[in-house]
Predict the 3D structure of the following.
Amino acid sequence: MEFDPELKQGDILRNDDICRIFKCSPQGGMRRSRRKNCLVIVSDHTKSIYEDRWENDVFHYTGMGLTGDQSLSFAQNRTLNESQTNGVDVFLFEVFDPGRYVYQGRVMLATKPYVEKQPDVKQYIRKVWIFPLKLIDHTTSSIITEDVFHRKLTIRERQAKKSSDESLWKKVQSAPRTCGVRHVISKQYDRNQDVVEFVKRRANGFCQLCKNAAPFSKKDGEPFLESHHIQWLSQGGDDAIDNTVALCPNCHRKMHALNSEKDKILLRELVKS
Ligand SMILES: [Zn+2]
Ligand SMILES: [Zn+2]
């Protein structure tokens, strides 16, 4: 390695920092720096039309070229394709939040690039090159928090909602069948199981919001209900029987999607008595 950017995996940079450290252009997914003899790869999940993804320890990165067939000899596709022999170091960043570049590290080709069919910006199905990249100094991608990951999914969800039927059809036809996998840090509530059991017994097989019987029974015969905190634990609610109810799965989803004041008052009254 000729150039050491002195960054740690997981460091978050701004675009100016990247240009300053790597002496590269402020734009684009593949930024060649002649001065540092390196190639900076930015996978911006908030903007890109591509679904770059980790499959465990390999990052599947889509090459350059927004319209028409991509070519391996085009611009930085070529630099990356030849990176094992041309002496150019390759550095990877990912963006989950607009303007925040998460440094992953120095990468190399894990295997030869391969072709996929994907719609271009004008919705024509064309050939793209996917570069399987692996980190040189680490075995896995830097671990991001669940919130950051969810923000990325929300942005993607919004973009999908905006797609026309035709564009959506083209995208799902050409999408890879393998789902991306990445590690995220999640916070788990270590909930008191005595409270859960008490609340279910109190509900006696009936949802406490719609009053219907549990929709089915589990294999052991217990009516299927889920326990729910009226004031969410994430908002400081107590893990106690006067803040917990048993709901059918529908009502439970409804409380998490709408959390209406009217339903909350109803449930609060119920646990008081
Ligand atoms: Zn219900
Ligand atoms: Zn809940």
User: Anything to note?
Assistant: The pocket of zinc ion (ligand 1) is lined by residues 207, 209-210, 212, 247-248, 250-251 (CB under 6 Å). The longest helix spans residues 146-162.
